[in-house]
Amino acid sequence: MRYGKTSLAANALERLKRRNVFTAYLDFYDVTTLEQFAAHYARAIARACETKTEAVIHFIRDLIPSLRPNVTINPEGEVSITVEAAPKKSEFSLVLKDVLEIPQKVAEKKKRRFAVVFDEFQEVRTVGGETLEKMMRAVFQRQKDVGYLFAGSKRHLMSDMVLNKNKPFYKMGKVVFLGKIPLKDLRDFIAIKFEVSGKNIKAEALDDILRLSCAIPYHTFHLCHEIWNDCAGGQIIGAGAVAPALENIIVSLSPIYLSSWDALTLAQRHLLQAIAISGGMDLFSKDFINTHCLGSASSVQKSVKLLINKEVLEKENGNCQFADIWFGEWVKKRAV
Ligand SMILES: Nc1ncnc2c1ncn2[C@@H]1O[C@H](COP(=O)(O)OP(=O)(O)OP(=O)(O)O)[C@@H](O)[C@H]1O
Ligand SMILES: [Mg+2]
Predict the structure, then answer these.
(1) Domain boundaries in the chain?
(2) Sequence-ordered list of residues with C-beta below 8 angstroms from that of 288, at least 6 positions apart, any chain
(3) How many angstroms does the Cα of residue 6 sit away from the middle of ligand 1?
(4) Average of pLDDT values for 157-165?
(5) Ligand 1 pocket mutation, candidates 189, 218, 326, criterion most atoms within 8 A of CB
(6) Is the pLDDT reported for residue 86 higher than 70?
(7) Which among 5, 7, 153, 186 is the best mutation to test ligand 1's pocket, defined by most ligand atoms within 8 Å of the CB?
(8) Residue 173, pLDDT above cutoff 90
(9) Between 1.10.8.60, 3.40.50.10490, 1.10.1740.10, 3.40.30.10, what CATH number should domain 183-253 receive?
């Protein structure tokens, strides 16, 4: 769910940096192999400790000789450093372990603490299987001066990683399910943003935005952006501006949603329509099943499970809701 994990983590890292803590960030969506992980992570650590390109290169060469840093300059003149991973497969796990050990080594040497954020951490399994997960756990639990944040957006996978006794990250640290930004704060924030750009947004419009976007920051700001774009020269934004903006969003995303829809079974589509219309509460109750002619509770259960695994649905406080609420709106529009 797009509640703002990445923004929150970036903000926390920025604050820690100001307090003289080394900070590194790695998004697991950016890496597809273990070698790439080692290279990206080594670069992120090196950049945390050194600012000059030359120094970054020396840092990598000194600490992990088996990684080869290269400097490239793009046509705009920007310098970037790429890192190639170890040549020999047999030695690779040692290299990987070395890379994971560096933040603690640096922290001890420089007498400064280190903070690391791994974003979209559920992908660690796709990238490195349980080997990487196990190695990380073994190395990290011995490090005294490094703090880690493992953020992920696939709740069912993240939950399995930290709540399942048989998994390496079981009870590794504090588990936090990020909640929504308090409604009033989000509302005030939007009103101020419109105001500073010379627009007066009415209370009813704000209510509609928050209700339709379920106060999920990504969706809330997507809708705000569309409203702002549509209102062009207008200074006052009333409730009438919200529905057309949402319609624009849904129309523009329709090709993507059509192909998602195409990939679902009839039973799954039928269930999604029922959830879109009803809001997704008490899915296994007789009332819900009979009203929407869904067959039996066990078949609904099976579809729900599959749709959660496909990341079409998400469980939120016991309710089932669309992971992408605009998709929910799209389904609703076609169902009624
Ligand atoms: N505290 C906040 N105040 C204002 N806007 C925010 C805040 N947090 C997040 N946003 C906005 O909400 C949107 C989603 O935030 P972000 O990408 O951080 O979420 P996420 O949880 O990492 O999403 P994903 O699950 O896609 O990785 C972004 O457009 C971001 O600018
Ligand atoms: Mg994110």
Answers:
(1) 5-163, 183-253, 264-335
(2) 274, 278, 281, 282, 294
(3) 6
(4) 86
(5) 218
(6) no
(7) 7
(8) no
(9) 1.10.8.60
CA angle 126, 132, 136 (to 5 degrees): 130
The pLDDT value recorded for residue 85 is 66
| Residue of 188, 190, 92, 158 lying closest to 315 (CA atoms) | 158
pLDDT in tens, 112-158: 999 999 999 999 989 988 889 999 999 999 999 999 999 998 887 88
Most ligand 1 atoms within 8 A of CB, residue of 1, 6, 156 to mutate: 6
- Tens of pLDDT, residues 289-321: 888 888 888 888 899 999 998 889 988 777 888
CATH number for region 5-163: 3.40.50
- What residues are neighbours of ligand 2 (ion), with CB under 5 Å? 6
273: Cβ below 6 Å to ligand 1? Answer: no
Which amino acid, one-letter code, is at 215? A
Q: Return the number of other C-beta atoms located less than 10 Å from residue 18's C-beta.
A: 9
Mean pLDDT over 14-26 rounds to: 97
| Interatomic CA distance for residues 23 and 6, integer angstroms | 14
pTM: 0.82
Neighbours of 267 (CB within 10 A): 15
Q: Name which CATH class applies to 264-335.
A: mainly alpha
Question: Which numbered atom of ligand 1 lies nearest the CA of 7?
Answer: 18
Atom in ligand 1 nearest the alpha carbon of residue 217: 12
Q: What is the DSSP letter of 182?
A: P
Instruction: Give DSSP secondary structure letters for 61-94.
Output: HHH-TTSEEEEEE-TT--EEEEEEPPS-GGGHHH
* Residue 269, helix vs strand vs coil: helix
